[in-house]
Amino acid sequence: MTRQYGFAIIAMSSIRTWQFYDSGECMIEQFLYLSALFDMYGSLLTEKQQECLRLHLFEDFSLSEIGEALGISRQAVYDNIHRSEKAMESYEAKLGLAARYREERRALTGIYEKIEELREPGNESRVDAILQQLRPFLGTRQEV
After folding, report:
1. Are 108 and 137 in contact (CB under 8 A)?
2. What is the pTM of this model?
3. Residue-wise pLDDT tens digits, 27-61
4. What backbone phi and psi angles, to 5 degrees, belong to 60?
5. Are residues 57 and 125 in the same domain?
6. What is the DSSP letter of 19?
């Protein structure tokens, strides 16, 4: 199963334990952070952990709904999700793949913008050819 959940908008500054607030912004940041970690490290989790997180993050199931779907208790779902988050944070602390990916995307975006600034009459086709080579790495599409 291929997953694409938008690394381009990740606002992950460092590994941190998330606190749950009523603020929607913190919940969105938490969702983006966990989605990024799940994309990078989800395959390292057990199948049960993967399914619990997938249902919780991407299908918006409550803990009770996940428990019912998987035939486990609500507490077991909570424990699975909590352990999964801790495991993924541990992987990120050791490997740093999500942070590295974010930094690479930021650098490539800067390069793309600098190349775009070099566009002058007469060299449009060469600039377009270079930018076309960068687009797959940035997830951008050529406008029609």
Report:
1. yes
2. 0.67
3. 788 888 899 999 999 999 999 999 999 999 999 99
4. 60, 35
5. no
6. P
